[in-house]
From TrEMBL:
Keyword entries, A-Z: ATP-binding, Magnesium, Metal-binding, Nucleotide-binding
PANTHER family (UniProt xref): 5-FORMYLTETRAHYDROFOLATE CYCLO-LIGASE, ATPASE INHIBITOR/5-FORMYLTETRAHYDROFOLATE CYCLO-LIGASE
Positions with a binding annotation for ATP: 8-12, 143-151
Sites where the protein binds substrate: 54, 59
Organism: Caenorhabditis tropicalis
Similarity remark: Belongs to the 5-formyltetrahydrofolate cyclo-ligase family.
First-tier enzyme category under EC: ligase
Record-linked InterPro entries: FTHF_cligase, FTHF_cligase-like_sf, NagB/RpiA_transferase-like
Name listed for the protein in its UniProt record: 5-formyltetrahydrofolate cyclo-ligase
Gene3D superfamilies linked to this entry: NagB/RpiA/CoA transferase-like
Amino acid sequence: MSPLKEGKSELRKVIKNILEQMTTEETNLQTEAVFQKVIDSKWFQNSKRLSVYVSTTGEIQTDSIIKKALEMGKDVFIPQFTKGSTDMEMVQIPNLDSFDFLPSTLWGIRQPDPTWKWKSYHLTGPLDLVISPGVAFTSSGFRCGHGKGYYDRFFSAHSSNFPSETPLKIGLALREQIVESIPVSETDVQLDQVIFDEESNQFK
C-alpha cells in the first residue's frame, strides 16, 4: 500500500472510531444547525438542479435538505450505485413520495431500484450544486471519502459532459469529521466549501 493510501486508511479508522462514540442526539443537533446554514445560503436558494447524498449513519443527515429542495420546486438528484460498477449515477427524484419509500441497498444506502428507471442528470443538463458526503474534511475543502472514488470520478464525468458548466461543490460535515490535514493526490477534487456547526469545534 502506498504512503498516500495508508495515510487515508489510517485517517478513516480514526474518524470511524470517533463517530461510533457519538450519540444520535448529538448528530441530530449538528444536523439541525447545518440544515439551517444550507437553506439560508444564497447558493442553495439560487440552485435549480442539485445533487444531494442520501445520508446513512455517521453523517450529517440530509433528508430535510432533500425534502426542502423538492418543496421549493428544485430538480433534485441522488446517487445510484450498481454492484460491480466503479461509476455512480445521479438520478432525479420524481416526487416526495418516491423519496420517502426508497429501499436500503448497497452499504445500507437508500437508493432507487435500477428497474425504476429514474432519469439521469446528464440527459437533461448540468447540475449547479453538488452536496457531497465524506469521512473527513479540512475546513479548506479537502475531502477523504470511503476509498472507492465515486465522487471524484463523478466530478470528472460532469466536467467531460458539460465542460463549460461547473457545479458548486459543498461538503457537509459533523465537527468530529473536521481535521487539520488530509493526504491528497492529483485526482482528489477540492470542494468549494465545507459546512459544519463550528460550536466548540476542536481539531482531532
